[in-house]
Design brief:
globular
Length: 136
């Protein structure tokens, strides 16, 4: 789960634990926007089920964090991974946020040099969900 801020990450970790009954030792919370900690958690999840990362704003999240996370996911043989992205609409509106994220992902996936090991990404739009599929 990627979110905009420190307190968002802490809040969502607590909600996940309390509402879903997931033990806190199964949640990695990184509220301090340290990319190296996120990359380490993605590389060696240590049987954790959920990673919650808080960054310092939508622009950084969209332009730096999301592409890096997706790149890490492509580098590993993850199966059955769900990536949740939570941002404040700040008066922009959900439709505009969705379109911005879709544009960023489409630009990212059109650069085939980013992808190795003959994996091909495919982005599908299903209602208000962006679904990423990886073909080997």
């Amino acid at each position: 789960m990627l979110c905009e801020g420190k307190y968002d990450a802490i809040f969502f970790s607590e909600i996940i634990s309390a509402r879903l009954g997931i033990s806190t030792d199964k949640i990695i919370t990184i509220p301090n926007n340290v990319m190296s900690q996120l990359q380490k958690a993605l590389r060696k999840p240590e049987n954790k089920t959920i990673i919650v990362y808080g960054d310092n704003g939508r622009r950084t999240l969209f332009n730096k964090v999301i592409p890096r996370v997706i790149r890490e996911m492509f580098a590993r043989d993850f199966s059955n991974v769900s990536l949740q992205i939570i941002v404040d609409d700040d008066g922009i509106g959900q439709e505009k946020l969705f379109d911005n994220l879709k544009d960023i992902l489409q630009r990212f996936f059109t650069n085939v040099k980013r992808f190795q090991r003959k994996r091909t990404p495919r982005l599908e739009i299903n209602g208000n969900k962006l679904e990423l599929y990886i073909t080997y």
